[in-house]
Amino acid sequence: MSVGRRRRGGGADGPRAGSAGAAAGGKGLSGNSVGLLGSAVIGISTVAPVYCLTSTLGPTVGQVGVQMPAVFLAGFLPMLLVAFAYRELNKAVPDCGTSFTWTVRAFGPKVGWMCGWGLVIATIIVLSNLAGVATSFFYLLLGELTGSGAVAALDGNRPAHVATCLAFIALATAVSYRGMTATKGVQYALVGLQLAVLAVFVTMALVKARSGDLPGSVDFSWTWLDPFAVRSFAAFTAGLSLSIFMFWGWDACLTVNEETEGSDRTPGRAALIAMVVLVGSYLLTAVAAQMYAGVGDRGLGLGNPETADNVFAALADPVMGTALGILLFVAVLASAAASLQTTFLPVARTVLAMSAYQALPPSFARVHPRFRSPGRATVAAGVATGVFYAVMSFLSENVLIDTIYALGLMICFYYSITAFACAWYFRGELRRSVRDALFKGVFPVLGGLLLAAVFCKTLYDMWDPAYGSGSSVLGIGSVFVIGVGLLLVGVVLMLVMRWRSPAFFRGEVLTGATPVLVAED
User: Fold this and answer.
1) pTM score of the predicted model
2) Mean pLDDT of 437-460
3) I need a surface site. Which of 129, 182, 254, 310 has the fewest CB within 10 A?
4) What CATH number did the domain enclosing 67 receive?
5) DSSP secondary structure string, 245-261?
6) What are phi and psi of 367, to 5 degrees?
7) 3 or 217: whose pLDDT is higher?
8) Residue 148, domain extent
9) What's the CA gap between 490 and 493, in Å, rounded?
10) How many independent structural domains does the chain possess?
């Protein structure tokens, strides 16, 4: 009997099932080791705000011009709506499997398995990208500090780059393996550094822009916040896709819910705090950078294609001076490194939950007896990330770029399914009060529809070989082939697991029963 048929009575028994789920949440993780602040810091760190800004400001301006702040707000809206869905589901079922566990309960094992796969593969792609970015900024920073172009050029040496990247992955895996205590301590320092440097950059950029001595600077206008002023719908959707990517990762604070004080409420509150901090940082930085540099396509202009992939590298010295400008390089490196470490949290805990509920091989359910972390799942995620990046780097630079472009498809895929799962799970409670109708039904459905629309539009755009690196397979865009191909790999693996673990796919496991756990060797 499927989970869906067992719950035909609707959401009226959703919270009751949630209490069972909470009881089933004892997977051996370190409970009550993270508070509200620590959980919010993990969510902010996973998003990597400084890295996102330096790599996205330029491309977004290239698409929407001075409407960049409006597009950031537009990207924030569906994420906020989905965050409400995560909060309500976490109250009922505080399980580290998050999207996987919730969608299994709402829609059954098959949909839930694919939702979990979407989260896992998206995270592996992001981890490999973050490791590459951390490596690039590591050598760029060393070059700045030593004044040696040869040192900075090591980033272009493929063997040296990949070796350093693997070292970063190994270090991040080791920190995550040691559990939440080690993770939390590192993140306080790295996130604090990022936000402090951003505050200095914003302040100095605004002061210099208002002085009137800069030829490219522009005066602030409230029309920058008007999304309807974007020149075309195609440009708006392209900018929106970039904006959604900038907010991805806040749900990491939900995946550590079993290790958080007040697991049913604190993670949801932390997610909303992280979202507010992120949108505030993005808007202030976007406005300050735009006022200082303008949106021109030459010189320091944010629309300059030669600096679009790393805006802060171009603006660091002019805005902050040589001495303080180095801090901006340090902040980008810290942002990528911090996100690299915390991004292991959601993938490891999702794999742990899938294994504990027999949706993956039982060995991944091993929890380290001392650190009380998903040791086997964390190491597996690190190995998968390292192999993925090394193979893609030596195979083709275009393939690596196109894999990153396919990331947006995965993000919209599992976020939208989770949002719809919320409305379906609580369907019997939507008429109980206005609050339930809005936060458990209307808002999640709207967020899911918006992300589903972006998913479909992205899928359509990916078919064109011009999307991404410009390469193609049999006339079809490589990004489309990679994105759809990775989802189909998930289908194949699901069929294999259905053969190996038929009980889960018959709906006999994830029904509130305590999962089978294995102690770490």
Assistant:
1) 0.83
2) 92
3) 182
4) 1.20.1740.10
5) HHHTTTTHHHHTGGGBS
6) -115, 130
7) 217
8) 3-519
9) 5
10) 1
